[in-house]
């Protein structure tokens, strides 16, 4: 038996948790099983809590530096887990991945320049491009029988009219862990066209069923790839807002740094620093147990859907704790589909339409919660479908 109790139900309602306390505003009722926001309903590693408590015990929370030990913890983690040697001088501490995307766009492109994204994808990618006055170029993923793929043919053409490409690796919401062949093909396009790639690898640690994540930068030349990394998803500390960019090109690094300085924002928060360090130093056994737990949940959910709701197809995933459900057989528009799951099933999912082109008729379901809660949600969804079938027949 695992030494970690992922079955434990922790009360999150009325703690300010977005996933729980925003239900009324978003779904119109506050009793849905919330499987939407991409954080986990599991306690983070106990070493993280202990480090936070120890830091809190010192009653001065003034301006902070980033200690060498933080850099070392990040470097050691990536070397061990991905055989990726990150130079300290390439690492920039940032107050989150989404702000880093905005900073990179501002620093590396001009208003009107093309920025490519691959929908269906994490929706802040779109707003990061449009809100900074850049031109959004979409290269939709190809949905095949064997899962999603990048459309490298259209990308080769689009890359001629773009400065930056934002890769989601692994890909939220479709759960793809890109293989080395695809990543090398992407880099070949970047090399031919001068395209710079910003690789958002926030989900890199969340690998299911023996999948292997390859950091794109490991395969690339300096200047081709900037990588966004964070312990936030991995260890369920996203509310602490610390991430890093790996920027091997000094001129790019200087330009991005200037962006953050212009906004006068810093990631030097004493709590996020100790939490991240503790997670990387002491959280490995917890993470491995977590991944086993989520994978078992995924298998049970897939088996349940296959038996009870075979008309809803579950996209095979290799990474993330997010399932991408193809609900098009229900033949509902996106509003009706969302309403159906909320009102009839009492389950709060993320509508696929949020993730742009290719998302209509899909829903994203978060699996990172105690298994009996996830299975309860599945049961309620199956009952809602049964009810619908009954109504349609009568
Ligand atoms: C691909 C991706 N990037 C970034 C984020 C959020 O990063 P941050 O909270 O550090 O801004 C998420 C959260 O779901 C995500 O899925």
Quick structural overview:
The protein is of the alpha/beta class and 394 residues long.
Task: Report on this structure.
The protein is an alpha/beta fold. The protein folds into 2 domains: 18-44 and 284-393, Aspartate Aminotransferase, domain 1 (Alpha-Beta Complex), CATH 3.90.1150.10; 47-282, Aspartate Aminotransferase, domain 2 (3-Layer(aba) Sandwich), CATH 3.40.640.10. 43% of the residues lie in helices and 14% in strands. The protein has a 7-stranded mixed beta sheet with strand order 2-10-9-8-7-3-4, covered by helices on one side. Strands 11-12-15-14 form a 4-stranded antiparallel beta sheet, with helices on one face. α6 links the parallel β3 (114-117) and β4 (135-138). It starts with 17 loop residues before the first helix and ends with a helix. The structure holds pyridoxal-5'-phosphate. Belongs to the class-II pyridoxal-phosphate-dependent aminotransferase family. MalY/PatB cystathionine beta-lyase subfamily.
